[in-house]
Design a protein that fits this description.
By secondary structure, this protein is an all-alpha fold. It folds into two domains: about 150 residues; about 30 residues. Helix 2 packs antiparallel against helix 3 and helix 3 runs antiparallel to helix 5. It starts with a helix and ends with a helix. Bound molecules: protoporphyrin IX containing FE.
């Protein structure tokens, strides 16, 4: 069964890497390749989410939650996997809802920021998985330089969570007001 997880994780990792590249090409370049990247992004994101769900389900089937939560390394791996899923799911919803206008004007920067954050998170997921499987990489050293110690449970300080919530609330209020103004023709 362990081999199943090892095999399935390649799908989200590869599709997330491809989706990130497509967002960057679609947002920063022009021409045929950029057009193709923008047009094919949603199917690639959908496949990445299916792959991620399969990888997560396989993880839960193979290792008990109790065992996973007992080790800081495995806890961090699970945390990063779920955060990666969340960020790419958000990206997929934005691209799906905006349709062909997803890359218009300043909107593209929201996609670029999400894709870059997602890339950092899925790289951390993979590198922690490698640690668990006994194959650490130099990427952990890079994480360590930024203050993320892979053997200690990752956490966000309360003030950081409060700032994130305030930003989310501010973005929701801004979006609501814009939509309201557009609806009333102002
Ligand atoms: C998007 C979800 C996930 C991704 C992308 C992912 C990625 C990985 C990767 C790349 C490896 C290393 C495999 C290798 O070296 O061949 C790995 C190993 C591992 N993963 Fe995940 N993983 C995910 C979800 C989970 C979940 C949900 C759990 C537990 C509930 C889990 C537990 C483990 C464990 C325990 C190992 C070590 C395997 C071993 O000892 O051989 N993973 N994972």
């Amino acid at each position: 069964m362990t081999g199943l997880h090892h095999m399935l994780v390649h799908f989200p990792e590869a599709f997330w890497a491809l989706a990130t590249l497509m967002v960057l090409v679609g947002a920063l370049l022009s021409g045929r390749l950029a057009e193709l990247s923008r047009a094919a992004l949603l199917p690639v994101l959908a496949l990445s989410l299916l792959g991620a769900i399969a990888a997560i389900v396989s993880g839960f089937l193979v290792w008990s939650l109790e065992a996973t939560l007992h080790s800081p390394l495995a806890r961090n791996h699970l945390l990063m996997a779920l955060w990666s899923l969340g960020v790419y799911a958000l990206l997929a919803v934005l691209v799906w809802r905006a349709g062909p206008a997803a890359f218009d004007g300043a909107r593209r920067w929201a996609l670029v920021i999400l894709a870059l954050v997602g890339a950092l998170l899925f790289a951390a997921t993979g590198t922690l998985g490698g640690h668990l499987a006994g194959a650490p990489t130099a990427f952990s050293e890079l994480l360590r330089l930024t203050g993320w110690e892979v053997y200690t449970t990752f956490y966000a300080p309360t003030w950081a969570v409060a700032v994130m919530l305030l930003i989310a609330l501010g973005a929701a209020v801004l979006g609501y007001r814009r939509r309201h103004r557009a609806g009333s023709g102002g």
